[in-house]
Amino acid sequence: MKKVIVFFMFVMLAVVSNAQSQTVNVPVDQLTPTQLLKIQSDAKIAELEKKLQTYGNWVGVGGEIGTAVKEGLSAVVDVADKFGKTDVGKFTMIMIAYKVMGKDFIRIIIGLLFFLVFSTFLFIYHKRHFTVRRIAIEDNGWKFWLPKKYQIIEPKRYEGYEFVKWANIAMLLGSFGITYAIMFG
């Protein structure tokens, strides 16, 4: 008897599921405006639900990718931080910094050294040959309260004196250009 009841239930279930899945085709002309609106709105709702489900899947995948990237980057940062604190890590960072900006750094140092040496030479040359100087003739030693005797030395005037003076200034200004070319050229 049990088997007959179970069989009967399966038959009823098959009939009910078959009845629900049947579709009827009716021409659009025979539908009322309310029925047509309901069918169109149901179709739009079904389409929106399909899009919403697709977008939801994309959001889920995007969230998973974002989480994976975040976890991966935090692991990289942690490992890089630990590595950077070791002696080998510090050496490696110095080598990377040199590889990235080493040439520029060396050019700046060479440019500054050139400017320092060349301009010092030109300033000393200009001071000795084109300015009035005084030289101590008599030094009083430990008697610093006594007045010292000085000799004033005037620069020697010669033919082309002004040209050499201006050429010296032009060389100083030219050293600015050469320094710029060394550092940033």
Task: Give the key terms.
single chain; 185 residues
Number of domains: 2
- What would you call the quaternary organization? single chain
Number of strands: 2
What is Rg?
47 Å
Low-pLDDT runs = none
Secondary-structure element series: HHHEEH
Gap between N and C termini: 102 Å
| Shape annotation | elongated
Please report which band the strand proportion falls in: under 5%, 5-15%, 15-25%, 25-35%, 35-45% or over 45%.
5-15%
The residue-averaged pLDDT reads 82
Number of helices: 4
Tell me the strand order in the biggest sheet. 1-2
| SS-derived structural category | mainly alpha
**Main beta sheet:** 2 strands, antiparallel
Helical content class: over 70%
Give a quick precis of the structure.
By secondary structure, the chain is mainly alpha-helical. It contains 4 helices and 2 strands, in the order H-H-H-E-E-H.
Folded structure, characterized:
The chain is mainly alpha-helical. 75% of the residues lie in helices and 6% in strands. Strands 1-2 form a two-stranded antiparallel sheet. It has 2 domains: 29-85; 102-185, no CATH class. The radius of gyration is 47 Å and the shape is elongated. Helix 2 (33-84) crosses helix 3 and helix 3 (87-130) packs antiparallel against helix 4 (161-184). The chain has helices at 2-20, 33-84, 87-130, 161-184, and strands spanning 133-138, 149-153. It starts with a helix and ends with a helix. It contains 4 helices and 2 strands.
